[in-house]
Structure formats: C-alpha cells, structure tokens
User: Fold these one by one.
Assistant:
Number 1:
Amino acid sequence: MAPRFAARMGEIAPFHVMELLRRASELERSGCDVIHMEVGEPDFPTPEPVLEAAQRFLAAGRVAYTPALGLPALREAISAFYAERLGADVAPERIVITAGASGALVLALGITTDPGDEWLLPDPSYPCNRHLVRTFEGRVRLLPVGPETAFQPTAAMIAAACGPRTRGVMLASPANPTGTLLSLDEIDAIAEAAAERGAITLVDEIYQGLTYGVPMRTILSRRRDVLVVNSFSKYFGMTGWRLGWLVLPDADWVREAEKLAQHLFISPSTVAQHAALAAFLPQTQDELERRRAEFARRRAVLLRGLDTLGLTVPAEPTGAFYAYADVSALGETAERLAQRFIEEAYVAVTPGRDFGEHRADQFLRFAYTTTQARIAAAIERLAKVLRR
Ligand SMILES: Cc1ncc(COP(=O)(O)O)c(C=O)c1O
C-alpha cells in the first residue's frame, strides 16, 4: 500500500539545484573538475580557536544537555558582540540559542503562526522560509521585487499588501539570493508600516558580518519590537556546527520560545555552543575579517567576469556571497543555461527558480564561495560555452 503523507507535503518542493548537484557529483565521479558556484557556504575551515575550544571541551568528556535557551555564557557573549560591534543594547535574556538560523526560524514561526496566518515574503528570497510557513499551516504571500528596489520590498509595498490575516513580514539583509541590503531606515519604515497594521517583522541577519564597503549593522540598534534571526554559519564559518540565535522583544516572548525549544530540541548542541564561545575572541575576529576581505576580492573577480560575459547584475550585491545575474540577453532560460553550464563547462550555479517565481527564469545565482582562481577559471569556461 502506498504510504500516506500529510497534505502539506504536497506543497513542500525540493531544491531544484539538487538535480544539478546530483549531476555534478556524477561528473566528478567520472573524473571531471566541477567548479562549485552554487553552494551557499563559505569554503574556509572552522576558525582555529573555535576548533581548539571544541577539542578542549570534548577532552573533558562531559557533553550533557544545556538549558533550552542555550549556555548563559554564550548568550552573554552574543549580547556583548551586539554592544561592542553593532552599537545595540540587547540583553542576554532576549537571546535564544538555536540549531542554526533554521532552528531560529522554526521557533519564530512556531510561537507566532496559527493556521491560515499570512506571511509576506519577497520573491525572490530564501526558499526554506515559504516551506517553514507552510509547515506551520500558515500562508505565504509572495511580493514580487525587482532591481528597481534592489530586490527588496518597500514600506509602501508592505502597507499595500497587509490584510486582515497578515501575521508578519520576513526580510533578509543582506539577502539570499541577491546579496542586496536594506538600510536601517528602510527596515525601520517597513517594520513601522507592518506594526501599524498589526503585523510583526522578522529580520534575517544571517549574512550580517559579510558586507563590502558598508559597515555591518543590525536593526536591533533601532527597534526592539522586531524578531531577529542570526547564525554562526556564514560570517563565523561554522555551517556544520548547526548553531544560530533568535533575538526576541522581551521576556514574554522568550518564555514561549523556551517552552517550544524544550519540546522540539531539548537544547542546542552543547559542543557547538562551547566551540562558539571562541568565535568572539579577538584572534577569531581578526581571522574572520581577513576572510571578509578575501570575499570582497572574490566578489570583484566575479563581478568583472560576469560583465565580460555580458551578464548584468542589476542590483549591486553589497553583502553575503552571491551575485544574482540577469541572463535574459542570452536568449535561453536560466534553467536551461544552468544545465548547459554544468554539462558543457562543469560549472555549477543555481537557477532563479529555486528562489521564487518572479522573473525566475531570467536569473542565475553565482556564489563566490570558491577561490579567486577558481572563479576566474569558471568565467573562462563559461566564455567558451557562450561563444559556441
Ligand atoms: C537567508 C538565510 N537564512 C537562513 C539560512 C539557514 O542557515 P543556518 O541554518 O545554517 O544558520 C540560510 C542558509 O543558507 C540563508 O541563506
């Protein structure tokens, strides 16, 4: 008998890029050198002081649960980071440690979303969000955004889109897949427009440390009534450790998150939390800044290269490690081009379709999570394919 799954599963879509990845690994097994520009994770190893902290902790041999909200020392370290680096007063009691930004998003939606509640999300945006909303039986309303607004919603769009069932607005700055930022004024105006209509604003700041020519910022330096998601995955280079955090407005919110976290997760990974304490040491921060400078150089190589290919990046990507390139001038869909790039050039990129529907077949996301030399080689290979 065929297994029966929940109705929601019919609406949970896989990542389309997985097909390409499957093909990429087949090609690699047959000896081809695939250049990976589809992956959303830094290629740098875990910073040395973080590894050492984990090893010291493991050597002591006692790896037990921590409180559901996370290690008090880590919540304090994050609070100090907000004060010292970001000029934001965020008490440790407002910080919930989670299994990555993903865990933070699950908690945020779990404590806010009733069946039928609507969340406004930009299209294109990070694909998991719409599936998480669906998992909690909420509804997603996608707001098409384009280069005119740097692929970000405006306060006017939010004001117009809010309806009686709107529960919240999800933003990301810097954003995936476009690498574009919202200014604090713009986030403030959106949050105000939402609040006036009874909706909350969730800001995903996972790419916070990765900005180029723009200082790192947080909306928490301006407002307290927003939910902020962050992570050790990207700037801190700790994807596989599965650690992030959620900042909530006050103790009432934290109490709800704590109840849910106790049941869903019991506690975040203890080893990862002890390791992450070293993420804020000056020597780690110095290393992370060197990595950011390297990302800036890679970004320059990629943007110059895309330009020589005749591909435009219509909204300047000043953050994260992505460029969202308009490929419509090439006369083929982004999906088809992504297939050709992997088959003919062994270069893997992500088609726009993974991030939404709006003009999705005109865009490809290039991640500069590989070395300058590999990026330059990818551009050369693509130039040959496009000349054919
Ligand atoms: C915008 C955004 N939010 C959240 C996540 C989830 O990250 P993690 O769970 O590794 O912290 C990602 C990962 O790519 C992302 O791009």
Number 2:
Amino acid sequence: MYDCIIVGQGIAGTVLAYTFLKNQKTPFVISTDKLPSASQVAGGIFNPLTGKNLVKTWLADELFPFLHTFYRELEQVLGEKFLHSTPIYRPFRSIEEQNEWLAKSALQEFKPYLNTDVNENQYCSDIKNPFGGVETLQAGWVELPKLLNSFHCFLKKKSLYFREIFDYSALQIFSEKVAYKDIEAERIIFCEGTQAIHNPFFQNLPFNFAKGEMIDVWVEDASFESIVNQGVSLIPLQENTYRVASTYSWEGLDWEISEKARTELIGKARNLLKKDFRVIAQNAGVRPATKNRRPIIGLHPQMPRVGIFNGLGSKGVSLAPYLADRFYKHIYENAPLPHEINQPA
Ligand SMILES: Cc1cc2nc3c(=O)[nH]c(=O)nc-3n(C[C@H](O)[C@H](O)[C@H](O)COP(=O)(O)OP(=O)(O)OC[C@H]3O[C@@H](n4cnc5c(N)ncnc54)[C@H](O)[C@@H]3O)c2cc1C
C-alpha cells in the first residue's frame, strides 16, 4: 500500500511527491500530458519583492530560504541542474523612485532582499536605465519543464508513476484507505491545477484563473545574465535568447497564443531593451489563481483521506516547497496550516 496517491504532476504534484519521499513516505503519482499544465509554460521566476512598488511577498522570509535548499537538494537527487539563482535587476522609472528605493533599502525588512550597490556596467549596454536600478536578491528562476520531465523519469524508474487521465468515478474511499483501480493508498491528494474544476470531490473552489502569455526573443549582441524586470521580466535562457514574461488576462481563458499579447509583450520589451530583437516563440497558459491570491490546501472536511494542493496562482515555484512541507506536517503531525490559505469547505 502506498502512503499517498498524487493526481497531477505539475510543480504542485512534483514538489508534494518529493516532500513525501524526503520523509520516507511512498507516493504514487498519476498524471497525463493530454491535459494542459501551467507549469510546462511558466516563466519559473521566484522573486521576493514583486509588483510595481516592489512589495515583499506573502511569507517571503519563510519561502525563500526554504526554496533554495529544497530545489538544490532535488537537483542533487535528480542529477540535473534546473535552479538558476540570479538577482532581478529593476531599473528605476524616475529620480523619485530611485530616492524612494535607496531609503527603503535601509529598512531591516528589505535588507536581505535588496542590493542598491549595483554594477550598472553589466546592464547599461543592453537595458534602458537612465536612473540606474536596484537588484532583488534571493531571486532567480527554475527551468520547470526540465525539472518536471526529470522527476517524471525518476518516478517511472521507481515504478511510482502512471500516465493516464484520472477517472474520478473509479476512486473508492474507505475509512482506513483509498483505492483507485488496483492502487491502494492511505490517502489521495489532488494537484490538478486549473483542471480541478472537473473534480467532483472539491466543488465551488475560490478560483479566479488568469491567462498568461510569453514570448522568447533573440536579441542582437546581448550580454546581460540576470533577470531584468520593469513592466515585464526578461529571463536569460541562453546566449542572446531571452524570455519576455508575461501578460495577465482574466478573460478568454483558453490556452491559445494571441496577437494582442504578442504586441503587448513586444512593446514592453522595447521599453526595456536598447537593442533590436526578433520573436522566436510564443506560449500561453492559464494560472490556477484564486480570488484572495492565496493557495487552496487541506483535507476534505468530510473525507479526510482526500486532500487538495492547488491555487498556486502566479507563484507556484516559490510557494510550493514551503507549503508542501507545511501540508505534510499538517497531515502527519496535525500542525496548523498558515491561516491565510483557503481550506476546502
Ligand atoms: C504564462 C505564465 C507564466 C507564469 N510564470 C510564472 C513564474 O514566472 N513563476 C511562477 O512561480 N509561476 C508562474 N506561473 C504560474 C505557474 O505556472 C503556476 O503557479 C503553477 O504551474 C501551477 O502548478 P500546478 O502544479 O498547480 O498546475 P499545473 O502545472 O497545471 O499541473 C497540473 C497537472 O495535473 C495534470 N492533471 C490535471 N487533471 C488531471 C487528471 N484528471 N488526471 C491526470 N492528470 C491531471 C495536468 O495534466 C498537469 O500536468 C506562470 C503561469 C503562466 C500561465
């Protein structure tokens, strides 16, 4: 008998499954590539200071130290490099913003996350930065497709993975276990991202999906190696190739690329880049975001052998490791979950 069936192997299911393994428990993962996955198209950025005014993100002091250790350890286990720790350079929009940020950087709560003593030389030939900029620290990006595919192979080798569209009607829930076809486990946790809207066990979840699109661009003679963010993020993928991420839309929630988003991203990239570029790829996806921007995590109130780990919104990479650990401790040690999260009602 397995300790847990995990349905869905995006970043949520991957991180949760590894959290079980780390704790000497045996997960069994069921997932499919026939349904869309936000993790396969995401930019993969983790950034402790976000938004126009660089606000410290929810639980930043816990999430960021935790995620570095988590992904580094997972790299060792998988023998694959997918974590790119890099500062995020943020050019100032005005002298006022420059002054504001220099003052803010002196505050204790921002000190671990800000570098105001930036070596501007590494950016000034490529990036429009007439007022200079700051760097956010403890930031970077994760190559999600690489991590997900590598973890999929790892699970398959251990016979802990089955590729199929989960058939909800085949799940049996008993007082002491759950059974799905011939697989028995102590519990089941659903990590289906946006596809959770088809899950009959959890209805009326407080989702507020947000579509996002990104383009990859080839930039003539570009040399900057950190992420740059102002309006959009420019993620260095390989020599001269950058990802421009991303748009937000709460309408037309399909997974198709659009001319409108491409035009918006090109415009924003032009505002940042001094050099010519051409678009070489475009991707679209839908974020499993929620109304209050907090994840949905917990056990079913009437069926405690059934759980959900979802609602990671636009921050799956930074939220998943720490919150999977909290969820694990909630299940096995009865530890409380962060009170802000959405628990299934
Ligand atoms: C354009 C864009 C840019 C983004 N950029 C970032 C970023 O820079 N940083 C960041 O942290 N986040 C980013 N995100 C958000 C990120 O993608 C999500 O937070 C994260 O991917 C959610 O992961 P998940 O595992 O919950 O869902 P998903 O990745 O969607 O995974 C769900 C998995 O479950 C499987 N599944 C669903 N139903 C079933 C079923 N019935 N049977 C079997 N399998 C099933 C699906 O096939 C899929 O593999 C971005 C999203 C988009 C769209």
